[in-house]
Structure formats: C-alpha cells, structure tokens
Amino acid sequence: MADQVELHGWTAVVRDSKILLAPLQDKSTPLPLSSLPFPTSALVSRVDAYAKEKLPPGTYNHSMRVYHYGSAIRQQYFPEWKLSDETYALACLLHDIGTTSSNIRSSLMSFEFSGAIVALDLLQKELNAPKVQAEAVAECIIRHQDIGEKGKITTLGQLIQLATIFDNVGLNEHLVHPDTIKAVTDQFPRNKWSSCFAATLKEEITLKPWAHTTALGEDDFPNGVLNNKLMQPYD
Questions:
Q1: Residue 170: what are its φ and ψ, rounded to 5°?
Q2: Longest dimension (CA), the chain
Q3: Over 70: is that where the pLDDT of 159 sits?
Q4: Mean per-residue pLDDT over the chain, rounded
Q5: Gap between the Cα atoms of 225 and 231, Å rounded
Q6: Fewer CB atoms inside 10 A, N or C side of the chain?
C-alpha cells in the first residue's frame, strides 16, 4: 500500500510553492515532446476520449499543456517524486471537467468540487480505477486552485498547481524553457486561451458568488489570466 500511496501522488509536500522552489537552481533546458510522452494505458485512453467529448477544444488543449508542462517541471526539478504518469495524466484531463457549460450549471458547488465528484464517479464507478488512484485524482482536482502559504499538499496536487498556474498566469516562468513552451503550444495551441479562461472564471463568479475561485481574487485572478505576458506570444 505504501508504494501505491507514493505512486499515485499522496506524498505530502509543502503547499507554499515559493518555499518549495526557493532552494532549487534554474535547471530548465529544452525538452522535445518525445521526452514527455503521454501515457497510452487503456484507462488513460478511455479518459482521454471522454475528455475530448466533454471538454471544449480550448480546455482540452489546456489540459494537455498542463500535462506536458508538469512533466517537464517534474523531470527537471523533482525527479525524486515517484509519481505515476498515468495518474498525473488522469488528473490533467479531468481537472477542469467542472467548467463545462453543463457541469458549471448543474451544481451549486464550486467547479473544482463538483468536477472532483464527476471525476471520482467516472474513474471508480464506470472505469473501475483503483480507489487509491481515483481518490488521488479527485483530491487533486479539489485543490488545484488551492494556492496558499500554510500547510501541506500532495505531490500530485502541487505539480498540477505549478503547471496550471504556469499556463494560466505565467507564474514561475523559469520552470519551463521557452523552446519547450513553443513545442507544447505548437502541438496544443492556446487559441486565445487567456480570454477564454478569464471568461469562464467570471461566469462562475457571476453564477456562484461564493465560489472558491474568489479566494484568488474576484478581479485579480481573471485579470492575471488576461495579462499573462509569458503566454501572450502564443495566444
């Protein structure tokens, strides 16, 4: 069981990314996509097909960029994290499932929480994924916008936080080499993702003024997404 816990990203790490990254030297070098392979297991293939069906193309491309940016970050900065590529891929594919036009309106819960329930039901009830893996993905989805300074988070949750905030806001731009960014965005274009995601955030805040997204700033977060200078050349 201990091996399974580590494999599916249940290892606790510091939640504050500034503390996590502070002792690390800049190690980013260009990585071709071939060095960041996407898993091809039967489970990932079925979830990938589900994501392509349910997510708008822009959100699907964002999910794939998050996978590749996170994989690059882990490979170059956290090689000691013994985290399954399969589990990380599942989390990436499903982390924004709560933002679809139907899901965002089908629950009063914040999209991360309602999306985690959708993902947990899909993985456990429909696809028979191991409980330890399905729950790791659900926890990760719940906490992928839980940016903060105190406490701990799982390695899976921390990695997806680093990758999503990198793609959405351009934070910690040193973590991924510009050549890798170009390779990833060439394969999975942004297609005005900044304006698209900012509109989704504003939509949820309008529908649910209590939404967890507001913890990042009702105006600050959408504006940060819109003013993502790192990704402007690729938008």
A1: 85, 20
A2: 45
A3: yes
A4: 96
A5: 10
A6: N
The answer to whether 126 and 118 have CB atoms below 8 angstroms apart is no
Is 232's pLDDT higher than 70? Answer: yes
Q: Quick one: pLDDT band at residue 1, thresholds 50, 70, 90?
A: low
Residue type, 217: G
| CA atoms within 13 A of residue 220's CA, in its CB half-sphere | 5
C-alpha–C-alpha distance, residues 201 and 209, integer Å:
11
Q: Which of 140, 147, 148 is nearest to 168 (CA)?
A: 147
| Residue 12: strand, helix, or coil | strand
Cβ of 67: how many Cβ atoms within 10 Å? 25
Residue 153 in tokens: 């988070």
pLDDT at 187: 97
Judge contact between 100 and 117, C-beta under 8 A. no
Of the candidates 136, 159, 140, the one whose C-alpha atom is nearest the C-alpha of residue 8 is 136
> Which tokens hold the place of 227?
């003013």
